[in-house]
């Protein structure tokens, strides 16, 4: 079981670093979530015992069995939710059909593969109830399109496929799954869930930048995002990444029209050292406790003799 204090501290440090360095960079958030995910493994590292100054107070840890039980219950609940999401995604995938008889889509898809330098071909499937394009599939990269995509023009298809393929090129779906597992391990930590939501939004910023790097006009791409944004109240499977949602649309459009400079390597390196250093220190350093008897707990010779010669059954004559 990870320490709640260490978990909250690491997540807080990561959020502060992300805020200072720029919220549109996913690497800092990913470093923090990766630290949280691997934090339970730090408990198996050798411990370093530090000798505290004489008279320094030492906190004695009480039995934490009740906390362990609560943690395991929460772990089971959120683990069950993840399994339900996997089952829901499987049913959702079965409801889709492979792309067929769509030469324009296939042509634009081949061009997008070439422009992104992808050697592995990505499957495209059509889903009737889908409202916005999504990327999914950890082992089999797939792009899901709504039926209306068959009537889109080449420019819209190009923007959509470049964005969704960008998620697969960047391994964003793997990052999303790792973030979900970090939230599962640290289900009690609200900052971990905030970090996960921020990571997903930052992945969208990064994919937008990749699309613009291929030569797509920023204004026309922003219009495409607005047209294809997921309607309010609509949902996609938890393990898929939609092209655009109403919650992040405004920030993404502002970033497209007025992009900011990426942060330097210094805050990234500093965050790596700070989070890993803090996690290692709190997981391995322990106070050296000397077990001694205080003078008040000892007995004099007279008291010892009195106890040894006392009648064990004082009620009997």
List keywords for this structure.
7 strands; alpha/beta; 317 residues; five-stranded mixed sheet; transmembrane helix; single chain
Summarize the structure.
With 317 residues, the protein is α/β, with parallel strands linked by helices.
Report on this model:
By secondary structure, the chain is of the alpha/beta class. It has one domain (4-288). 57% of the residues lie in helices and 8% in strands. The protein is built from eleven helices and seven strands. It has helices at residues 4-21, 26-38, 65-94, 103-116, 154-170, 172-185, 190-213, 218-228, 246-257, 265-284, 301-309, and strands at residues 48-51, 97-98, 123-127, 134-136, 142-146, 241-242, 285-288. A five-stranded mixed beta sheet has the order 2-3-5-4-6, covered by helices on one side. A two-stranded parallel sheet has the order 1-7. The longest helix has 30 residues, at 65-94. The termini are far apart. Residues 58-62 have low confidence and may be disordered. Residues 71-256 form the Peptidase M56 domain. This is Peptidase M56 domain-containing protein. The chain crosses the membrane at residues 27-45, 66-84. It holds the Pfam family Peptidase_M56. InterPro entries: Beta-lactam_resp_regulator (IPR052173), Peptidase_M56 (IPR008756).
């Amino acid at each position: 079981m990870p320490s709640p204090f260490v978990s909250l501290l690491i997540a807080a440090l990561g959020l502060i670093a992300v805020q200072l360095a720029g919220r549109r960079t996913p690497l800092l958030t990913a470093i923090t979530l990766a630290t949280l995910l691997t934090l339970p493994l730090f408990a198996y590292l050798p411990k370093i015992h530090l000798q505290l100054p004489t008279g320094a107070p030492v906190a004695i840890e009480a039995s934490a069995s009740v906390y362990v039980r609560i943690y395991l219950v929460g772990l089971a609940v959120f683990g069950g939710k993840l399994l339900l999401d996997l089952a829901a995604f499987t049913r959702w995938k079965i409801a889709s059909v492979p792309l067929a008889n769509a030469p324009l889509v296939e042509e634009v898809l081949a061009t997008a593969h070439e422009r992104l330098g992808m050697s592995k071909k990505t499957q495209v499937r059509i889903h009737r109830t889908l409202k916005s394009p999504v990327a999914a599939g950890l082992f089999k990269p797939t792009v899901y399109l709504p039926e209306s995509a068959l009537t889109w023009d080449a420019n819209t298809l190009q923007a959509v496929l470049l964005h969704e393929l960008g998620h697969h090129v960047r391994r964003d779906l793997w990052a999303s799954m790792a973030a979900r597992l970090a939230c599962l391990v640290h289900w009690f930590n609200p900052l971990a869930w905030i970090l996960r939501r921020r990571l997903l939004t930052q992945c969208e910023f990064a994919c937008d930048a990749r699309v613009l790097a291929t030569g797509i006009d920023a204004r026309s791409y922003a219009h495409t995002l607005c047209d294809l944004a997921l309607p309010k109240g609509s949902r996609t499977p938890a393990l898929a990444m939609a092209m655009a949602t109403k919650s992040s649309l405004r920030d993404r459009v502002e970033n497209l029209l007025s992009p900011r400079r990426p942060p330097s390597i210094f805050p990234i390196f500093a965050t790596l050292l700070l989070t890993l250093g803090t996690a290692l220190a709190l997981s391995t350093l322990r106070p050296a406790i000397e077990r001694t008897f205080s003078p008040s707990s000892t007995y004099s010779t007279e008291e010892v003799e009195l106890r040894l010669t006392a009648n064990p059954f004082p009620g009997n004559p």
